[in-house]
Amino acid sequence: MSTIATTVIRHPKERLSKCSLTPLHGRPEMTFIIWSEQLRFEASEFTLLSVDAPPLSAADASRPLLILDSTWKLLPSLERCLTGAPYRRSIPPGVETAYPRISKDASDPHGGLASVEALYVARTMLGDADPTLLDRYHWGAAFLTKLEAHPLLEGLS
Description:
This protein is an alpha/beta fold. It is built from three helices and seven strands. The protein has one domain. The protein is 16% helix and 16% strand. It has a five-stranded parallel β-sheet with strand order 2-1-5-4-7. A two-stranded parallel sheet has the order 3-6. The longest helix is centred in the C-terminal third of the chain and has 11 residues, at 115-125. The radius of gyration is 15 Å and the shape is globular.
């Protein structure tokens, strides 16, 4: 089994000190791109993690992952940089974040996860379980505990 390549497009207003993916910089399977108004990213061959999309399945394991990393409010601007038609997929319903959400405008969608949580679940579901993704995530142990009870993920990690 090979590690699933992952590209992250991060909004520059996403605070690195709070970004759950910051500890993953430097990993060979991870590519980080800073979004700008001029950025165009051909996403046709990627699986884009997205809320309100069909759920991930084993059929998605052959494609690299694409994660748009920003606040929920800024997400539409990142989506506009994508060209082509990525395969939009979601994490199964019922997976709960361990990240303490504090939204001043209540714009967080139900079922939204911290980016590293979504990455961990996606790679696990695609046969590329890697608990080291959560090693430096402050709420990693709490998130793994929440996952233990999820029926679709039993036995995957």
